[in-house]
Design a protein that fits this description.
The chain has no helices and eleven strands. It has about 130 residues and is an all-beta fold. The strands form two sheets. Strands 2, 4, 5, 6, 9, 10 and 11 form a seven-stranded mixed beta sheet that branches. A hairpin with a 6-residue loop joins strand 5 and strand 6.
């Protein structure tokens, strides 16, 4: 059974940084792309960032480009999201995700629908 567990969320002030982690069990992720998405109250889940299976390619939503950095450690079966310059609009539940349907050295899934497995989410709240 594949499980994704996020950690690292919390309450911060605008301009602060947070680093989210996602540990995967039940499947080796080294051959698959992974990503992050977020969902604010009353809104749909939105794509945030993705990374190819070897970490050679990344893709970001325009809203986080230049502030967030996605990375992975396949030896630890984990993916990370470094969030700098946080804004109140970044407040949401953040989810990590795994895409096992497609593969490719530079494949970076860019829609929520592309992913097959999701974590339970971690809350990030940014106060002004």
């Amino acid at each position: 059974q594949v499980q994704l567990v996020e950690s690292g969320g919390g309450l911060v002030q605008a301009g602060d940084s947070l680093r989210l982690s996602c540990a995967v069990s039940g499947r080796t992720v080294s051959s698959y792309a992974m990503g992050w998405a977020r969902q604010a109250p009353g809104k749909e889940r939105d794509f945030v960032a993705s990374i190819s299976w070897r970490g050679e390619a990344t893709y970001y939503a325009d809203s986080v480009k230049g502030r967030f950095t996605i990375s992975r450690d396949n030896a630890k079966n984990s993916v990370y999201l470094q969030m700098d310059g946080l804004k109140p609009d970044d407040t949401a539940v953040y989810y990590c995700a795994l895409d096992i349907t497609y593969s490719g050295r530079y494949y970076t899934p860019q829609t929520v629908a592309a992913y097959d497995y999701w974590g339970q989410g971690t809350q990030v709240t940014v106060s002004s």
